[in-house]
Write a structure and sequence with these properties.
With 289 residues, this protein is an alpha/beta fold. The protein has 13 helices and eight strands.
């Protein structure tokens, strides 16, 4: 009863805004671990919230979920609690700093294929309730192209691809684009270079990456920007606080704020094939293969 009442109240409070919200689904990708993907996802989400956007951050880095750790929080419920205990998504959505809503991943299973048909259908039915509830649904996936991350990226409206200037990181990021492009040529990418020594170096790396993708894959990708290598980021991780909140005047925080502003100004309406309903439809088709 309480669950039904909570759902009804949320729907009523968002009845007018849901008419214009399309719940754009964006996945955060990387070619390898250790490039700062989850930290970016969290601080980017907070910056979008600060701009007045309704954001839900979902930690789908299955088996290695750590968004809650970066915030220094201990969520009461995880994604697997929702699935196995048949909880409503409204019961497991947690409130983070500045009213950011997030779904903690937990470590109850290692891949989506472990779910039986009933569990998977329940998971998707609960996710679909986010339709019209949020402006942006950010999904933090596993590093590299794990089975789950690949499936999620192929189902998303857009992918933000994070890499560092290191040659191995660049090579792995290129592989991500190559593999995903071969399976879904229309998939949109935004390239983000993290931990750059200065903005000029970052944009040079991004430009070369963009040119290589265009030349060898005949694929157009967008350059999102470059984030400076900032000691404040490491300090915030040790404090278990988002760096945009712990050190709001740091160069990294200022850059994330500008990226969020650029993202919001460039966001277009999601068509009927996209959004959370489109994400679930594509993901179901992939899982059924």
């Amino acid at each position: 009863m309480l669950r039904d009442q909570a759902y009804l109240l949320r729907k009523l409070s968002n009845s007018t805004s849901s008419l214009r919200r399309q719940s754009r689904v964006v996945t955060i990708a990387s070619g390898k671990g250790g490039v700062g993907k989850s930290n970016f996802a969290l601080n980017f989400a907070l910056s979008l919230v600060a701009l007045g956007k309704k954001v839900v951050l979902i930690d789908l880095d299955i088996g290695m979920a750590n968004i809650d750790i970066l915030m220094g929080m201990a969520p009461k419920s995880h994604l697997m609690d929702m699935i196995r205990q048949k909880k409503s998504i409204w019961d497991v959505l947690e409130k983070g700093p500045n009213q950011l809503e997030y779904l903690a991943g937990g470590s109850g299973f290692s891949h989506l294929h472990q779910l039986d048909e009933e569990e998977r259908n329940y998971f998707f039915r609960e996710l679909e309730k986010l339709h019209g509830y949020a402006d942006i649904i950010l999904i933090d996936t596993g590093a590299g192209l794990t089975l789950e991350s690949q499936q999620c990226h192929l189902s998303a409206d857009e992918v933000i691809l994070l890499t560092t200037p290191e040659p191995t990181s660049i090579a792995d990021a290129y592989s991500v684009v190559k593999i995903l492009h071969s399976q879904r040529p229309s998939l949109s990418f935004q390239l983000l270079i993290n931990r750059v020594s200065n903005p000029k170096v970052g944009m040079e790396v991004a430009g070369k990456f963009k040119s290589a993708v265009q030349s060898f894959l005949n694929k157009e990708i967008k350059i999102f920007g470059a984030i400076p290598d900032d000691v404040s980021v490491t300090q915030a991780v040790l404090k278990q606080e988002p760096f945009t909140l712990a050190f709001p005047r740091s160069s990294a925080a200022a850059t994330i704020k500008r990226l969020a502003e650029r993202f919001v100004s460039g966001t277009t309406e999601t068509n009927e094939q996209g959004g959370i309903k489109g994400f679930i439809k594509k993901l179901t088709r992939i899982l059924d293969k």
